[in-house]
UniProtKB/TrEMBL annotation:
The lineage of its organism: Bacteria, Pseudomonadati, Pseudomonadota, Betaproteobacteria, Burkholderiales. It comes from Cupriavidus necator. This is Cyclic nucleotide-binding domain-containing protein. PROSITE patterns: CNMP_BINDING_3 (PS50042). Residues 14-134 form the Cyclic nucleotide-binding domain. It comes from the Bacteria.
Length: 226
């Protein structure tokens, strides 16, 4: 592995609490892959095999509708990591990942990620924090998308209330707040699929909404399990 790869791992936020032995294993197990602009990194519906880190370039995450149309869901830039939720779920990914431009990507195997989760308390804490951050981002995206085509529905109001509770209550009531958030997201998804008023999301917006709702729900479940 190149020195750039080693430095990338050493300076990653999640590696701060790892021992030298743990860092050495990550570097030994991981690989580096170059992708051209537009090249597919992960197909929608594929089962995740790696945790991905962006050394150079940027990765684009697309929500894909049943009709095949895509809408940009998120992007991950140099220094960023993605795939925590998909790895923890161990289910086919709901989105497609491609290189927004020529990119150099670190691939940490699924088994190595799981070993770190089991072996390092600091790494587990970092993962939980990332899931909470991701949940916040997904909920903000859902709010923006809902406002694009109509007034936020009651399900969304329940989601925001639950997340505020999660942020304020602390560890003792974290599980209760997460469960409230999960139930509210499920309610909101049903309202998106079966709107009660005349406003209808476009196909692209529908795909992004459902993808964001799925990601938010997965983040909440994963934070609850850890």
């Amino acid at each position: 592995m190149s020195i750039d790869f080693s430095q990338f791992i050493d300076t990653a936020a999640w590696s701060a609490g790892l021992s030298d032995e743990q860092l050495d294993r990550v570097k030994q197990d991981a690989s580096v892959q170059r992708y051209l602009a537009g090249e597919v990194v992960c197909q929608r519906g594929s089962t995740p095999q790696h945790w991905l880190g962006v050394i150079e370039g940027a990765l684009r995450i697309d929500a894909v509708g049943d009709d095949g149309r895509r809408v940009a869901f998120s992007s991950v830039f140099c220094g960023g990591w993605l795939g925590v939720g998909a790895i923890l779920n161990r289910q086919p990914g709901p989105y497609a990942v491609s290189a927004a431009r020529a990119s150099l990507v670190v691939l940490v195997p699924l088994a190595t990620f799981q070993w770190l989760l089991d072996d390092s308390r600091q790494f587990s804490r970092w993962v939980i924090d990332q899931l909470n951050v991701r949940l916040d981002q997904d909920l903000a995206l859902i709010e923006n998308l809902l406002l694009c085509y109509g007034e936020p529905r009651s399900g969304w109001q329940e989601v925001t209330s639950s997340f505020q509770s999660l942020a304020q209550e602390g560890e003792l009531k974290k599980d209760q707040a997460l469960m409230q958030c999960i139930k509210a997201i499920s309610m909101m998804r049903n309202q998106i699929l079966q709107p009660s008023d005349s406003s209808q999301p476009t196909g692209e917006t529908m795909a992004a909404l459902l993808c964001a709702a799925g990601e938010a729900e997965a983040s909440a479940w994963n934070a609850l399990r850890l």
